[in-house]
Amino acid sequence: MATNNPQIPVRGAMRNVDGNEIWDMYLNEVKEDDKQIADAWKEGSDGILTFIGLFSTIVAAFIIEFYKRLSPDSGNQTVALLGQISQQLANFPNGTYSITANQPPPSSSSMIWAIAVWLISLVSSLASALIAILLQEWARRYVEVQIRPGDPNHRARVRSFLFLGTKIYKMRLIAQMAISLLHLSVFLFFAGLVIVFHTINKNVAIAVEVAVGVLGVAYIALSILPCFDVRCPYRTPMSYFLWYPTHAILSFAVVCLRWLVVLLHGCLAEPSWDEPLTLTQRILFRWLYSHEEAVKTDWRYIMDGLGKVIINSAINAQASKACSQYTKR
């Protein structure tokens, strides 16, 4: 009995294929995509782990060194106590005898804050390393589980099932979280440096503050630039988080500006149905229309997110470029 196999185009020609061949073609198409996804997770994790290995060593060294200043030195206390006893014995024949215990100087609150900030930085970096290790394990399992079934149909279903899970549970967001924690730990370390050097030397503290301030301003600028121009290749993990409040603030500002324009229109342009629009009315109407479009654009950006807006902007830019070239012809 003949079976009606579907016909699909293969290299420009239509031919019959069976069910397994269709699934094999599907698996071959998505194999490279899955490899790129898994490699991206692994390579990003390798870079994070390498940096954290060096960074954690530096932070731990600072914590150990400055923590010693918070703990009283038993050797110094012994020497001070022996000196006090000898002084008291020397004054004993004169009839004067007093016992005054030398209390260790109180720990500086700035030093305590610096060590606390460094400890938070160390914990954040270790948490980032843990997430990176988990990402490597998840990437390995993502690839291994797909190849266990022998039937191409089952392998394709398993692949689709796992890929849908990565979308639902935001695997890319977890990867961004690891990098964000690493960046946070670096800036916390810098903050601890500024605090601790204020207790040691003011001039050195000012120099460190200037260096950290310049780095912080540059980081903030790189984080905010993609929020205003999605073509900007410079972005940080904070760009994805700053995207939403930035456009929410812009939308609120445009609404306030639109209210001012409406108020200005009511004061300067009297409505008249018999006479044509004046130049002032046309300008104000044009402003109102542009403000309404800006509000719609900002809300669409908030709903779509940075990643989707980049793709849509690229597609629309390509389409508009093609239309302009067609009209020139």
Provide the domain count: 2
Q: In angstroms, what is the radius of gyration?
A: 33 Å
Structural class: mainly alpha
**Largest sheet strand order:** 1-2
What is the averaged pLDDT score? Answer: 75
Give the CA-based shape. flat
Low-confidence stretches: 7-17, 97-106
Strand/helix succession: EEHHHHHHHHH
Task: Characterize the structure shown.
The protein has nine helices and two strands. It starts with 6 loop residues before the first strand and ends with a helix. The protein is an all-alpha fold and 329 residues long. The model is unreliable at 7-17 and 97-106 (pLDDT under 50). It has helices spanning 19-67, 74-91, 109-146, 152-168, 171-198, 202-228, 237-268, 279-304, 306-328; strands at 7-10, 13-16. The longest helix has 49 residues, at 19-67. The protein has two domains: 17-97 and 107-227, no CATH class; 240-328, no CATH class.
